[in-house]
Amino acid sequence: MADHDMLDNDEPLLVATSLSKSFGRIAACRDVSFALYPGEVLAIVGESGSGKSTLLQMLSGQLAPSAGHVSYRMRDGVTRDLTTLGEAERRFLFRTDWGFVHQDPAQGLRMAVSAGANVGERLMAVGWNHYGRIRDTASDWLARVEIDVARIDDAPRTYSGGMRQRLQIARNLVTEPRLVFMDEPTGGLDVSVQARLLDLLRSLVAELHLAVIIVTHDLAVARLLSHRVMVMKGGRVIETGLTDQVLDDPREPYTQLLVSSILPP
Amino acid sequence: MTAMIDVADAQKTFTMHLQGGIELPVVRGVTFHVNPGECVVLSGPSGAGKSSILKMIFGNYRCDSGRIGIRHRGTVIDLATAEPRQVLNIRRSTIGYVSQFLRAVPRVATIDVVAEPLIVNGVARSEAQQLAGELLHRLNIPERLWQLPPATFSGGEQQRVNIARGFISDLPILLLDEPTASLDAANRTVVVELVAEKKRQGVAMVAIVHDDEIRHLIADRIVDVTSFAAAA
Asked: Please, which of A75, A164, A182, B113 could form a disulfide with A214 given CB 3.0 to 4.6 Å?
């Protein structure tokens, strides 16, 4: 992929500097640094226990690093250190400028309220109060993620796994965030459902010029969606570069093992 | 210096860690340049490193040493040391690559697969689709197939879609990896014409072509890759 608009002279949206996290004597994440630019899709790959989920939690301000910091350029252009944000500010960021797509849609949705309310809730959180406009926008978004608008009043617990995941994406994107975190977004889905979701994500990311940090153990997902890849092992980034470069010309033994473990199509 | 591509002393070795760290030398001392409006054909037997050189110029394979100078928006950038973001920018507005096989995106219609490189560079969708249609016509892809995704097409049809996608843009550099491999005579002629048109527009091209007749028709210069063979 990697055909998206990317300006030459923009500033990074998010910068991670020497991020580390230890749980007791276990170093889950060690000395990770990178910069993410607007519209850029970064995949963090590695197997379970490599530290990629810990890293994602630190990047999204849900877990305090043991060392290092994350700075983010807010919509007003001011760059802030995430650890200095108050709880209210952080929550506001999450409701407006950020999205988080969980592997399990039940974690990102309210399963007992209607699909329309799931999407509309994010709009109300940013101050929308006109019921008709909220419903219209929610309908538009259901259509964009290929959910039959006739299902708008049904609760997501009546939806299939693929539909729930698409609803979670609509809920996240309705406020036009600039950065979306994704944790194994295609993880629990059937292969055919995965392909459709990936294709949908790919076009939405390009259309909305989203920056994305996506954690996945599936290199095919990284290849289809991301511009850049970071390979993690034992809490460290062991290889990083352009996605097709890292996957077609892997240098590190572990990356070569990952790439060679893919079954041919 | 007006060359569009200026490769100097580029070297590539694969280290196969899963095979006990065997070193597989691919090429070394790769040095040649390509001027605007010129088509350089890489020659040499299979395994001599022709495709690897093309991939190094596209930034798909990394160089161990040496330089891949690319003229990008008026300045020369060394692709061998460029940042990933810069490589992506160069691919979007300077270097196109026609691979041997179409990497089909599921669910995207053929006409849009072909039009996409123009759309990402800001051309209006309708105009891009019209140009895509003209190219598909020339390459004898029947109009009834245009709205279908190319995933189910035959090998030859997919290759022609791939060629249309590669030739639609007005990028100043094109890399062609066996563009005529599975085409019939009529379609090979179309590709030869397309290459000639690109030359007139000043596009610099590097091609790999096994067919002697086609090579003779499109090559302005031939660079023999065996002189870069790294194998001891």
From this structure: A182
